[in-house]
Design goal:
Blueprint lengths: L20 H15 L4 E2 L16 H26 L5 E2 L1
Parallel strand pairs: 1-2
Length: 91
């Protein structure tokens, strides 16, 4: 946050486990209450186990899919009501 343009008080972060739709929806609601309208959403959560397929367990692969795919869906779906207005963006 310190690197963002002043005033830094305007920049906030809200954490959630992207695998949990309710947690994502709650974080977005908190962000809206704290900062007003949500104009931009960046889906940047990712999980990875740098290993060849034979070196990764089924559970490890599921964790990557849950974070990368389900997490992106949960985040976009939870943000839809906030971002359906003209000018809003999803990255």
């Amino acid at each position: 946050l310190a690197q963002l343009a002043p005033p830094a008080e305007r920049h906030r972060s809200f954490a959630a486990d992207v695998r949990d739709f309710a947690a994502v929806a709650a974080a977005l609601a908190d962000a809206r209450r704290a900062s007003g309208e949500i104009d931009i959403l960046v889906c940047g959560a990712a999980g990875n186990f740098p290993a060849p397929a034979l070196g990764m367990s089924a559970n490890g692969f599921k964790a990557v899919i849950d974070i990368d795919v389900l997490g992106t869906f949960n985040t976009c779906r939870a943000a839809y009501e906030h971002l359906r207005k003209p000018g809003a963006s999803v990255l």
